[in-house]
# Entry
Amino acid sequence: MFDPSKVRKERTEWRDLELSKRHRKWGFNCPAVDIDFLMVEYYYGKPVALIDYKRFTGSKNNTHPKSYEAISILADNSHIPFFVVYYYDNPWSFRLEPINNIAKKIFEENKKRLDKCLTEREYVEFLYWLRGHQLSQEEKRILEGLNNTLPKPCKGNRDVL
# Structure
C-alpha cells in the first residue's frame, strides 16, 4: 500500500505546486526529478555538458541522490560531463562539483584550475574550453569585462564556495 508520508514534501512552493502535489500522489515508486536550473551547454548544436546550477547558500547539497544518477545516465549516454555548479552572485563566482565519471576525469585532469572557487571570468573561460572554442578578439573583450574577484567567503580559502 502506498504511504504518502514517504514521498518527499514540496520544499520551495514556487514551482507549479498543483502538479507537484499531484505527482506525489502517484506513489513512491513513480519518482521524478524537478530540474530547477539544469542547463545543456552546447556548441554548434552538439551538447558539451549538463550543468545543474544551484545558488550557494552556505552548504552543499547531497550530490549522490537517485535523481543525479538519472541525469548522469543521460549525460553518459550523450558522452558529456555532468556538473553541479554552485554560484554566488555578489560578486559572481562558481564552484564545480563533478558528478559523472566524464566530469570527474575532466576535473582530475584540470584539478589545479578547477578545484577552487572560480571567478566569473575563470568559469566562462572553462565553458569556452569545454567547447574547444578558440576565442575571438570580441570574446576576449567580453571576458575582460566579467567579474574577476572572489566573494569574501572564498578570499584566503578558494575552496569555501
Q: What stands out?
A: The longest strand covers residues 46-55.
